[in-house]
Amino acid sequence: MNFQNPWWTDKNKLYEDEQISKVLSLSPKFIPPPSDENLLILGPRQVGKTTFMKTTIMSAVERGVESTKILFFSCDSLKEKNDLISLLSQYRSLINPDGGYILLDEITFVKDWNVGLLHLFNGGYLKNSIVYVSGSSSVSLKRETLPGRPLRKVAFLPLNFRMFFDIYFKKLDVVSSSVMNVRGFYERAVKLVPHIAELNRALLEYVKRGGFFATNYVKGDPLDSFYETYKDSVLSDIAKLGKDERTFREIIEKIIESYGSRISENTISKETSIGSHNTVASYLDLAENLFLLKVFRKIESNKINNKSFKKIYFVDPFIYRVMKRYTKGLGTVEESEIPHIIEGIVGEHLAREYGRVGYTFFKGGKEVDFVVGNLGIEVKWGRGDYKDLKMDRGYVLTFDDMELGENKAILPVSVFLYLMSSNKIFYEL
Question: AAA+ ATPase domain: from which residue to which, for each copy (predicted)?
Answer without folding.
Answer: 35-160
